[in-house]
UniProtKB/TrEMBL annotation:
Similarity comment: family membership: Belongs to the PEP-utilizing enzyme family.
Entry annotated with the keyword Disulfide bond: no
Biological-process GO terms, alphabetical: phosphoenolpyruvate-dependent sugar phosphotransferase system
Active site positions, chain numbering: 186 (tele-phosphohistidine intermediate), 486 (proton donor)
GO cellular component: cytoplasm
Pfam family, one: PEP-utilisers_N
Domain PEP-utilising enzyme C-terminal: 251-524
PANTHER family assigned to the protein according to its UniProt record, in alphabetical order: PHOSPHOENOLPYRUVATE-PROTEIN PHOSPHOTRANSFERASE
Cofactor(s) needed by this chain: Mg(2+)
Predominant place of localization: cytoplasm
UniProt KW Calcium keyword: no
Taxonomic source organism: Streptacidiphilus fuscans
Reported function: General (non sugar-specific) component of the phosphoenolpyruvate-dependent sugar phosphotransferase system (sugar PTS). This major carbohydrate active-transport system catalyzes the phosphorylation of incoming sugar substrates concomitantly with their translocation across the cell membrane. Enzyme I transfers the phosphoryl group from phosphoenolpyruvate (PEP) to the phosphoryl carrier protein (HPr).
Protein name per UniProt: Phosphoenolpyruvate-protein phosphotransferase
Length: 556
């Protein structure tokens, strides 16, 4: 019987295929005492397993590259946490086996995270995945994961660990649906990078029977269970028409009446550049530099190593615009040499620019490396600071850029509500703003981007979030400066039109989304975008805002 279920669409496209379920790990080792004389051997076993899992996560990251690399390297650091390892060794010393000691040590740490508030609670899924991998290795059993299949399928899971999502084979995995997660979760971001249609936060997803045919619409979030032959043919026809329209849409981003809105790419490093160039990106709107620093959590990369990596990206966009975000460490991206180990809530502590101002030598080295990397290139380099809270932060960053001799525009990311509310003040110190809508939503609504239960508050269509975007854009216009969006909100073609109507001056997104946004903008006028923006802001919920904007843009 045909049934339509509704989740949150996070990656464009339509997938039709049979359901295959993600294997789930039930890996609780037997609780048994070991002889005292075996403790040293068990401790060595545990250490080897931890090192092997960390190396595997690192290798998966190197293979996947880009944003996936940063996510998996963060998980590898989690596996190697010295406090966790010390707890494992202590438990073995009093009689636990290696696998039971790992299980219990991670369970204790898990309980601390789960009780520490929304932000840290969101790390529980990643911690569980690391624990399962270590225990599976110690028990000598395969790690449950992506199912084996010779035929393409739609993957169903409660949630997907980054290590699984990063290496999905798009020729076999037509799309995926998860019961948990949110529009800005790691898996959603990686799905967009892979170009795999995906729906998250869909209640009852795991109850779908194995082998049933489903149609997944990664744009609307609809999942049709057991669609009729006619419905399947219609969806395939519409998908083919969209694909043809995308192929026909080329050139710079602009509305149908000629209003230019540059479409830029979000990248994590040189490995992401080819996809951005192929998609017709007009430059880079967010170059996340964390990937280089996560290679070794104990020390920062050398200035020469940074120069090499930055220049590889800058050379790919001659005459183009490349916006580099300096290191954003802390929260879910801890670095031993930079991040405090004892913060009760890292998301609200010493993160981003705050970390760099406490370690000026790290910031100074990165800014010098960027200056050297841009020497002799015609690229338009812009450098911005993450987690700017006020004018004092903006001034400190701009002063550091000048002291490093950086010949570039200096900007501030708007990720904290205070920055949007006081945007005009901040713009007296810097030359542009860039809205990170993922974190801005997280801090506006006190809703962790990794927690599926609060996914509705992470929806970038929330009118309160649109109000903050409008405040920032109005401030930039008043100061004669630019204000772009580099959060995942820009990857939604309809929302991209609304953002244009709110007055933002550029849109940056994963490369796979650029053709969709370009094609949509080309069908509407600036006046339509402005009317859609006004209608969305007048709504009282994200769903109402989306519906109101769609109505305006469709001419109804």
């Amino acid at each position: 019987m045909t049934e339509t279920l509704q989740g949150v669409g996070v990656s464009h496209g339509v997938a039709i295929g049979q359901v295959r379920h993600m294997g789930t790990a039930v890996l609780e080792p037997e609780a048994k005492q070991i002889p005292t004389e075996d403790a040293a051997r068990e401790q060595a076993r545990a250490k080897r397993a931890v090192d092997a899992v960390a190396a595997d996560l690192q290798a998966r990251g190197n293979l996947a590259g880009g944003e996936a690399q940063a996510v998996l390297e963060a998980q590898a650091l989690m596996a190697l946490d010295p406090e966790l390892m010390a707890d494992v060794e202590r438990r073995i010393a009093v009689g636990s086996s290696a696998e039971r000691a790992v299980y219990d040590a991670f369970a204790a740490y898990r309980a601390l995270l789960a009780a520490a508030g929304d932000y840290l609670a969101g790390r529980v899924a990643d911690l569980d995945d690391v624990r399962n991998r270590i225990v599976a290795r110690l028990m000598g059993v395969p790690m449950p994961g992506v199912p084996d299949s010779d035929e393409p399928y739609v993957l169903i899971a409660r949630d997907l660990a980054p290590a699984d999502t990063a290496l999905l084979d798009p020729t076999l995995v037509l799309g995926f649906v998860t019961e948990e997660g949110g529009p800005t979760s790691h898996s959603a971001i990686l799905a967009r990078a892979l170009g795999v249609p995906a729906v998250v936060a869909m209640p009852g997803a795991t109850a779908m029977p194995e082998g049933v045919v489903v149609a997944v619409d990664g744009s609307s979030g609809a999942v049709i269970v057991d669609p009729s032959t006619e419905t399947q043919e219609r969806l395939r026809r519409e998908a083919a028409e969209r694909k043809a329209a995308l192929a026909a849409s080329t050139g710079p981003g602009r509305t149908s009446d000629g209003h230019l809105i540059p479409l830029l790419a979000n990248i994590g490093g040189p490995v992401d550049v080819p996809a951005a160039v192929k998609a017709g990106a007009e430059g880079v709107g967010l170059f996340r530099t964390e990937f280089l620093f996560l290679d070794d959590s104990k020390k920062a990369p050398s200035e020469d190593a940074q120069v090499e990596a930055y220049r590889a990206v800058l050379e790919a966009f001659p005459e183009g615009r490349v916006v580099v975000r300096v290191l954003d460490a802390g929260a879910d991206k801890p670095l031993d040499f930079l991040t405090p180990a004892d913060e009760p809530n890292p998301a609200l502590g010493v993160r981003g620019l705050r970390s760099l101002l406490e370690h000026p030598e790290v910031l100074r080295t990165q800014l010098r490396a960027l200056a050297r990397a841009a020497e002799g290139l015609p690229v338009h380099l812009e450098v911005m600071a993450p987690m700017v809270a006020d004018r004092q932060d903006a001034k400190a960053f701009a002063d550091a850029c000048r002291e490093a001799g950086l010949q570039a525009k200096f900007g501030a990311m708007v990720e904290i509500p205070s920055a949007a509310l006081r945007a005009r003040s901040i713009l007296r110190e810097v030359e542009f703003l860039s809205l990170g809508t993922n974190d801005l939503a997280q801090y506006t609504f006190a809703a962790d981007r990794q927690v599926g239960a609060v996914a509705r508050l992470q929806d970038p269509w929330q009118p309160a979030l649109l109000d903050l975007v409008a405040l920032s854009a109005e401030a930039a216009r008043a100061e004669g400066k630019s204000c772009g969006v580099c959060g995942e909100a820009a990857s939604d073609p309809v929302l991209a039109c609304v953002l244009t109507g709110l007055g933002v001056t550029s849109l940056s997104m994963g490369a796979a989304s650029i053709p969709y946004v370009r094609a949509k903008l080309a069908k509407v006028t600036l006046a339509q975008c402005e009317r859609a923006a006004a209608a969305a802001r007048a709504a009282d919920s994200a769903a109402e805002a989306r519906a109101a904007a769609n109505q305006v843009l469709s001419g109804e």
